[in-house]
């Protein structure tokens, strides 16, 4: 404890090194000078890098989405064709619904075929078969 008091008494407190830092804002009171020792640790991202990553994502998602579009269309056609043989109203309605879903996903031809087949199946069941 005596050493600490004697150290304070001697006023031998060492000042922090300046490292060439100058006071830039001497006109303003209470503003600390900008430190030249602050460094930015960040990766630079250019427009080319950003566009290249978007193109890679677009290519992979377009292939995946096209498979999904056709899948909905083929499911819709399968349901519509099955509706000619089993549960015509229920399966035909499901084929029509999936046909509209596949049209909204981009598979217009498959969706239209499924909608037409489901409608024909329901129409035959309701209007032709009762009279035969």
UniProtKB/TrEMBL annotation:
InterPro entries according to UniProt: YqfX-like
Residues of the signal peptide: none
Membrane-spanning segments: 72-101, 113-131
Keywords: Membrane, Transmembrane, Transmembrane helix
Top-level division of the source organism's lineage: Bacteria
Disordered: annotated span: 1-37
Biased composition (Basic and acidic residues): 1-12
Keyword Transmembrane in record: yes
Name of the molecule in the record: DUF4190 domain-containing protein
Organism name: Oceanobacillus jordanicus
